[in-house]
Specification:
- With about 1000 residues, this protein is an alpha+beta fold.
- The chain folds into five domains: about 5-75, no CATH class; about 90-200, no CATH class; about 235-260 and about 295-465, Gyrase A, domain 2 (2-Layer Sandwich); about 480-695 and about 810-989, Multidrug efflux transporter AcrB transmembrane domain (Multidrug efflux transporter AcrB transmembrane fold), CATH 1.20.1640; about 705-800, Alpha-Beta Plaits.
- The protein is built from 33 helices and 24 strands.
- Mean pLDDT is about 80; it is low at about 265-275 and about 280-290.
- It is found in: Cell membrane.
């Protein structure tokens, strides 16, 4: 080997750099462990401890020091499935952005196009492209985007804006730019909110040009609080309010009018229309009213006063709000109240007639106007901080700009004179509506008070400081993982990795003897390099990533096996040990096969990286890095030891007493049985396709959208009982399966999955808790059931949500990923082998393998004791199977090409059979190590990736079969008879 000294130098340097990079991870883990011990289970205390030492030196190398903040920035980050925390994808509403850019245009073509874009948006199509497509179809050239009543408005005029002379194509460029600016603005606002939230190592990134933003908060535990923080648009407004005595007559009139449409049987004894006192009552039966006859009054559960019109139960807010928005009801408003705007306050707790605590929501009437613009917007707020009011209750203090201070002084002066109130409204919710008792307020300082928790005032101040989002941000995908579940994943992954390493190492020693030891050393160096690179690039390690590392161990020895098998052949032909080593490492020896096989593997890994997301991208990252490091260590590190052994005149034979005669006289007629294998594969293919058509697949929420909860109970529960309970409250949409142990269930529902607000999420969580709490002993509160905390073993351990739009995108990506991988690999084989028959044989084998695995999943998912869902993890498994199957097929094809171009005597079929038989030792060895490693992962890797591993396990077995019994026969059958005869004549001349 040339430049051996240089390779040693770089190997040692690379090892030292890897150790240096990994040292930060060890130090960081030590500090975090100390923090956990100090906090003794208190997450806030743990976070404060880590914050307090952020700038302290914790790592001394002698020549330089590193603070904890610097150390944690250089460590290998753990993904959500290992660390625990919350992961969400937010969709910035491009529809709202377009409405804002058009100044809320009333143009019918514009608004119909917005509606059509929402309804007809295709998988992987951006909303703005769908809008442009719909606008073109609806306008038919009669209306331009640059019309004065659409985008050529005052807001978008000027430099860089739109004027009415622009064509649609010119206007599109400006609109796209403005939409991108809005998404960038939202990204900045969210980043500022998250930075102030107080989690370690938050991650926020834009996802291409989709208007989507990924937010990862490792270690975060309060689910509902975080979702509110992320989705709040922070639309702060200050409105003048009506008092109950001003709006009460309307409510009485509305109540009377609603009786005609909402109550089937009206009692004759009703309240007089002018009775304001009835409205102020707490909803009890009285001499003038009878419960059940008054659509609005009957729903009042608490007395109003001042700007509060009444208190209602949260469950009634939708119905009452619907009544007050009806055109036939609003017509009852007096002329000066025509633009009144009815809004709800922040939920609070009151006592009912029996003294029991109940939740109530206040109803307000704001003084609206034709343009629906508040008296003052929150854009004037320059700073906000959490504080305490005069009563010692949590509140938020605000400071306004000079312009805002002037408006605020005028507004408060007017309220003081008229003895009215000013409602402070955030995202259409009234937080407080104070009166002004001491004259106009100057200086621009104000305060929001109410029924707050301290954490709420901190979040509210944070949101106000960061500013408002330019449009609504909907959570279209979310995943919540508890820290205890993350620790289980780490333990399972570590155990399976160590056991896999041990099995592979033992097999290499047993089969190849001393040469196997050298391969094991190369494998250890490979793992050091792999982790070193992961640390240096700041990669995120996930459970599928650990699976990728374990898989890397199985494939890492593949190149060594190919080289060793070639060296054995060279030794049998009479060459010396050094000559055999040199020949096996040559291009005509093993290198050509190794390069072809690994290029196809890299191509499928690259497709997986491009189309994957989250944990799947982590899997692809470790797989790709592992391929590169495996090649380096197998080709260069192991070679150093082999050359050293040859220089010492060691009797290195690449065999042991156990493996000496394995496959030496192996002669199987692979082409002779092709009729049987074709028939078997045809039957399997037909059965699989039939099952796919009739039985379908168990599509996970990744593909169809929905919510999934992993719930653990104290003791085993009946699946059918839980399902019957949940079907009732989730409108018939509830699927329940045992997940691992009998006391753990996987619950899936599509209930309100299309509603992205925090209210829908909280409603689903509460319904789940209310219906499952009877299966727990007393003491499991809602917070403990839903939220994550260290040591959590009961309740929701993991929760995820995928919106239908994103699910469609994921499904589209999956199709393109599989088809793209097959196409790219097929093209490479045509280029590498220069004959289309090789590519066709390989594609036939891949298609066979994919259909086979899909068929197994379709036939078995209903009765297997583990999950067999078709999701992103499954697609990753399929692409890995494609890579492996291609890898195996290319090794066989390389030997077939070598034999067909050589001098082996015999007819065409016998030459091909000899070439296949010569690869059997490599094929069986590689497949066996892979199968052993995957079996270990399947048994010890944990329930969450068992279906993922099973797909790869089946795929590896089927891939080995297809490379021998499908790919090669197809290759031979597509080569013409003339070519067969020509090859035979050349070989037998």
């Amino acid at each position: 080997m040339q430049n051996k000294g240089l390779i040693k130098f770089f190997a040692i340097l690379f090892a030292l750099v890897s150790i240096y990079q990994l040292s930060f991870t060890f130090v960081s883990n030590k500090v975090k462990s100390d923090a956990k011990s100090f906090a003794n289970g208190n997450p806030d205390k743990e976070l404060k401890y880590l914050d307090s030492i952020g700038k302290e030196n914790v790592f001394n190398l002698g020549f330089t020091n590193f603070t904890f903040n610097e150390v944690k920035d250089k460590q290998i980050n753990k993904g959500l499935d290992l660390e625990g925390g919350i992961n969400v994808i937010l969709q910035i509403s491009v529809k709202d952005v377009l409405k804002g850019l058009s100044n809320n245009s009333k143009n019918p073509v514009f608004n119909k196009s917005l509606a059509d874009a929402t309804a007809n948006q295709k998988g992987n199509q951006t909303y703005i492209d769908a809008f442009f497509e719909a606008f073109e179809a609806n306008s038919k050239g009669t209306v331009k985007l640059a019309s004065p009543d659409i985008f050529a408005n005052r807001t978008l005029q000027g430099e860089g804006g739109i004027d009415f002379q622009m064509t649609d194509d010119q206007a599109k460029k400006v609109i796209r730019k403005k939409v991108d600016e809005s998404v960038d603005s939202a990204f900045g606002v969210l980043r500022e909110r998250i930075d102030k939230f107080g989690v370690t190592q938050p991650n926020i990134q834009k996802l291409g040009e989709t208007g989507r933003i990924l937010v990862e908060l490792p270690g975060a535990k309060d689910v509902d609080r975080i979702k509110r923080l992320l989705q709040s648009t922070a639309q702060l407004e200050f409105w003048e309010t009506y008092k109950i005595d001003e709006i009460g007559n309307f409510l009485m009139a509305a109540n009377e009018a609603l009786k005609k449409t909402e109550i089937n049987k009206v009692e004759t004894k009703t309240a007089p229309k002018d009775s304001i006192s009835a409205l102020l009552a707490t909803g009890k039966d009285s001499a003038t009213t009878k419960k059940g006859n008054d659509p609005i009054l009957d729903k009042i559960i608490g007395q109003g006063g001042g700007p509060v019109l009444g208190l209602f139960a949260p469950k009634d807010t939708a119905a009452v709000g619907g009544y007050l928005r009806r055109a036939d009801i609003r017509i009852l408003l007096s002329a000066d109240q025509h633009y009144a705007k009815f809004v709800w306050g922040k939920p609070s707790t009151i006592k009912d007639a029996k003294g029991k605590d109940i939740e109530a929501v206040e109803l307000y009437a704001l003084k609206g106007n034709r343009d629906n613009i508040a008296a003052m917007s929150g854009g004037v707020v320059t700073d906000a901080s959490d504080t305490f009011d005069q009563s010692g209750k949590p509140a938020v203090s605000m400071q306004m700009s000079g312009k805002g201070a002037k408006i605020w002084e005028e507004l408060t002066g007017k309220a003081y004179t008229q003895k009215s109130n000013i409602a402070i409204v955030l995202d259409n919710v009234v937080y407080s509506a104070p009166g002004v008792s001491s004259g106009p307020i100057s200086g621009g300082r104000s305060e929001i008070s109410g029924t707050f928790q301290i954490s709420e005032t901190k979040d509210l101040a944070n949101v106000l400081r960061a500013g408002k989002l330019p449009a609504a941000a909907d959570i279209i995908q979310s995943e919540v993982v508890g820290p205890s579940l993350g620790q289980e994943a780490i333990d399972n992954g570590t155990n399976s990795a160590l056991l896999g390493l041990l099995i592979v190492s033992l097999w290499m020693m047993v089969y190849y003897g001393k040469a196997g030891w050298y391969a094991n050393i190369a494998l250890a160096v490979n793992l050091l390099f792999l982790f070193g690179i992961l640390a240096s690039i700041g990669a995120v390690l996930t459970l599928p990533g650990i699976a990728g590392i374990v898989l890397t161990m199985g494939t890492a020895v593949d190149a060594n096996i190919i080289i060793y098998e070639r060296a054995k052949e060279e030794l049998r032909s009479g060459k010396t040990l050094q000559e055999a080593i040199s020949a096996s490492y040559s291009w005509k020896g093993a290198m050509r096969s190794i390069v072809d096989a690994n290029v196809t593997h890299v191509l499928t890994g690259a497709v997986l990286f491009i189309f994957g997301s989250g944990p799947i991208k982590g899997f692809a990252t470790t797989l790709l890095i592992g391929i590169v490091t495996s090649l380096f260590t197998s080709i260069f590190i192991a070679r150093i030891f082999l050359d050293w052994s040859a220089a010492k005149s060691d009797k290195l034979s690449f065999v042991t007493g156990f493996s000496k005669n394995f496959f030496t006289n192996f002669h199987f007629d692979f082409l002779g049985v092709k009729k049987w294998t074709y028939a078997f594969s045809a039957i399997v293919t037909v059965v699989s396709i039939y099952s796919l058509v009739t039985n379908g697949l168990d599509q996970g929420v990744d593909f169809v959208g929905g919510r999934t909860f992993q719930v653990r109970f104290e003791k085993p529960v009946e699946v059918e009982t839980i399902k019957a309970e949940l079907v009732k409250v989730f409108d018939g949409s509830a699927e329940v399966k045992v997940f691992g142990n009998d006391n753990q269930l996987k619950i899936t529902t599509k209930y309100k999955v299309q509603e992205h607000g925090t209210k829908a999420d909280e409603e689903v969580n509460k319904l789940l808790y209310d219906n499952l709490k009877q299966h727990y002993s007393a003491g499991l509160t809602y917070d403990k059931f839903v939220n994550a905390y260290d040591g959590k073993t009961l309740g929701v351990l993991q929760a995820s949500k995928v919106g239908p739009t994103l699910a469609e995108d994921i499904k589209t990506n999956a199709y393109w990923a599989v088809l793209g991988a097959m196409l790219i690999v097929g093209l490479y084989l045509i280029i590498s082998f220069r004959k289309w028959q090789y590519s066709l044989g390989a594609i036939a084998a891949i298609a066979h393998d994919v259909i086979f695995v899909l068929g197994i999943y379709s036939l078995c998912y209903k009765f297997m004791p583990f999950g067999m869902e078709i999701d992103q993890h499954f697609i990753a498994a399929i692409l890995t199977v494609i890579g492996y199957s291609m890898n195996d097929t290319v090794i066989v094809f390389d030997r077939v090409r070598e034999y067909l171009g050589g001098k082996t005597k015999g007819n065409f079929n016998s030459i091909v059979n000899q070439s296949i038989n010569s690869t059997m030792s490599r094929t069986i060895n590689t497949s066996l190590t892979m199968i052993l490693v995957l079996l270990i992962m399947f048994v010890f890797g944990g329930e969450s990736i068992r279906g993922f591993i099973f797909a790869m396990l089946i795929g590896i077995v089927v891939g080995t079969y297809s490379s021998l019994f499908i790919a090669t026969p197809v290759l031979c059958d597509t080569i013409s008879e003339e070519e067969h005869k020509r090859i035979e004549q050349e070989h037998n001349a």
